[in-house]
Amino acid sequence: MLNTREQPVSKRVQVMGVDRTVYGYESDGFFGDIDSHIANNQGLITEICGLPSGSVFVDVGANIGGTTLLAAAAGARILAIEASPRNADLFELNMRANAVSAQLFRCAAGSAVGEVYFSEVAYGAGNHVEPSGALVVPVRTIDSIVAEAGIDRLDLLKIDVEGYESEVLRGARETLRTFRPTVVMEFNAYAISMHTNESPRLLAEMVLDIAGQFEVDSRGGMKVSDRGSLGTFMYQHMVHGCVNDLIWRPK
To answer: Which end of the chain is less crowded, N or C, counting CB atoms within 10 A of the terminal residue's CB?
Structure first.
């Protein structure tokens, strides 16, 4: 159960060789393992390490800021999007504690401007959009956020929104077409099935249509380039019950 009266605590973690202070809640298992979560996302770390000078990074589902701290160590300009008010408060606290500049948008990213029901849970990385959610949060499109920020480039887009990824992509069409960033997106069939009415296979097909091909990071280690290899990926993903990162550049 979510303890709304709990006060944040801090811990020291290494981020790209830099000693950082990160705040979170002691009852949150995600925060308890935050150093591991930051260090072990190899596909995303590889992309962040390869960011050129003057790069722009958009962190969709920024959580309490672990990925943003990685991008800050690489010298990127950062736009962060976080729908959970609880996590957004921690994100701002963590940026202040580490003297990191990041432009935070307190909203969900979706296909159209509006509002959506949202659930905050004890495991902070599991907060998600759902019809029965106790909170109502604003929704903006990636296209509108990018336009407001006035950026003239986008090098890396990270999406981790617990099943709401297809809505994020629908609201980012112009951004993807204009800037063709590298995209690192979590693919979690369980979250997609539980929190939305969409098929995980349809999201994978959407990515294939946008990119022409994509790589499956970490527990997959394969390249998907057509409907045949997509079927193989889906079979492996469902059988092993894992969470994968899909990495691609829009065609």
So the answer is: N
